[in-house]
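Lecture 7 notes: from sequence to structure.
We start with the chain below.
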Amino acid sequence: MHAGVILVGGIGLPWLRDLDYGTQWIERVRNEEWPEGVLLEDLSYAAHRVLHRLQELDLTRVVLVGAMPRDIDPPGTIRRYRLDLSQPPVAEVHDRLSEAVMGIIDLDHTLVVCRHWGGFPADTVIVEVEPEDREFGLGFSDTVEGTVAMVATIVRREVQRPADVDSDAPMTSPPNGAMPPPSPSPNALLFPARPTGPVS
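Predicted structure tokens for the same chain:
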């Protein structure tokens, strides 16, 4: 068992462009220098298998990275929030576990199943990107490609944060030198999408 681990996990849907964000993001940053005790892993497999992996580790903190089509923000928006660890509805657990056993890979499936069985530590943060291109293919859309460096900045801030610092505290040195606008949820910070076209 790995002791005192901070796990950075990516979850993606293979071959589905922006929806494969977590998998491809992990591959891009895996060989960079990370603080001691930080473990980077691709968790793009069925939710119950992710639960078993979490149970193998002595986790102090988890940061999950992925792309989820919430359709509440423009493509390329980055949402960062502390995971609500309260029990999800039993019916939802049953439905998502059944789909996971059939091979469905999805960030929300993983969150529901692992919450139900207590797989996450109290300090669990989600960093998710609003996708633009959800079609079959390789590589990200230009809009989502533009989030890769900012997500890395946010994740590094999370893994370097002292244990006694509230994970919902604002960034002291946010990307682009400006704080995000007020979030529609008190439990989330939004980093708006950057324009990708020429600036007039």
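Points to note: Residues 183 and 189 are 6 Å apart (CA to CA). The beta strands are 5-11, 38-42, 59-67, 78-82, 124-129, 188-191.
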